[in-house]
Predict the structure.
Amino acid sequence: MTGPEVGAGPEVAAVPEAGGAVGATAAETAALDALRSRLADRAEAEGVLDVAWRTVDSPVGPLLLAATEAGLVRVAFDVEGHEAVLDRLAAAVSPRVLRAPARLDRVAAELDEYFAGRRRTFDVTLDRRLSTGFQRTVLAHLREIPYGETASYGAVALAAGSPRAVRAVGTACATNPLPLVVPCHRVVRSDGTAGRYRGGEAAKALLIALEARS
C-alpha cells in the first residue's frame, strides 16, 4: 500500500496523504486536506466507507485508530508499522479503507482524556471482529481489572475458565487488536515484571506508571 486510501471503491479516487508531495506549499496542503475531507464525506454518504482511520499523537508514540460502522476495530502503535496495519485491515475487513478522521473524533478525545489522567474507562463502541475464540474470551475479562491495578497472566487464565492456559493468555494479550481501550497492559507476569506488549515493554511500563499516579 502506497497511500492512505486502500481500494476506496470505484466511485472514489485515492488521494495522497495530507502534506502531499515534498515541498508542497501551505495552500497546496490546505487544498489537499479539503479534497480528502470531501472524499471522506462522499464515501460516508454513499456507504462505501467501510473502514475509517486517523492517527493521533500520544505519550507512547503515534497511534493509528481505525473504525468500521460497528465501532472501533483497531488501535495500532507506531512500532507495528501503520501502513502494514492498514494493509491487514484491507484484507481482513474490507479493501474500502479511507482516512476519515471525523468517525474517530470521540475515540481521539477519550484517549486525550485518558493520557491526561481524566478518564479511567472508555465508552466507545467496539467492533471485536478481529478477536476470535479464546482470545476474545480473554479480552472480555480485561476490563474487570480495575484502573491502576494489575493482574497476572495466571489470574486472567483462571478468570477465563482455563487456568492452565497461561501462555495462551499471554499470546491473546500480546496480539490484542484494541490495546489501551481493552487494557491488556494491566496483565503482568507472576513476578510483577511487565511481559510482552504490542507497543513494546517501555510503552507498557509507561501506561502502568500513568495509571498508578492518577
About this structure: The helical segments are 26-45, 82-92, 105-115, 133-142, 153-159, 166-174, 201-213. Residues 26-45 form the longest helix (20 residues). The domain at 1-130 is CATH 3.30.160.70 (Double Stranded RNA Binding Domain). DSSP finds seven helices and six strands in the chain.
